[in-house]
Amino acid sequence: MNYKSVLKYSIFLILTGIIFLLAKTSVGPIKCIPIVYKSAQKYNMDPALIMAVIEIESKFDAKAVSKAGAIGLMQIMPKTGKSLSRELNIKKYNKNSLYNPEVNIKIGTYYLKKLLQEFNNNIDLTLAAYNAGIGNIKKWQKQKKEIPFEETRTFVKKVKSARIKYKVFSRFCGCLFSACQYRKLCVNIGN
Fold this sequence. Notes:
Layout: H1 3-23, H2 29-43, H3 47-58, H4 78-87, H5 101-118, H6 123-132, H7 134-142, H8 150-172, H9 182-189
Helix pairs in contact: 2-3, 2-5, 3-8, 5-6, 6-7, 6-8
């Protein structure tokens, strides 16, 4: 066996393992891809970032509810969901709408976009605000503090790490996503 054959086989094994692990989740990343792509395209966002947030927030469990009361795939707080649903003109919105993957991902993606704009495309501050709240981040910025919450620092690291995984996965397995042009969007955004 030559080097190229070993490399191809190794990549195949790694991707098979990733697909196996991803398939064991409740909604599953494969089922989320068309929804993520649609929202990513609409708000000019990196689909790998959205997938990473979903994985870390809920492990692709559309019925997930946090101790704080955040709901669904992207763990949206009901108050935030209500406010953003008005901005997005989502008809017949209620708290239970956040269990719907399409509504949850649309609101979560829109919220990430707003946070990126608020924090001048700083991904660390955006993710910290998504996790700990925009008010905390602004307070920490005024005090010139690093992120004091261990949970938030860990969240930022995990999402950034997962984002890399989805970028690699999309580049190696772009053919799997060609129907929804997931890979094309990843390349076009350049993230």
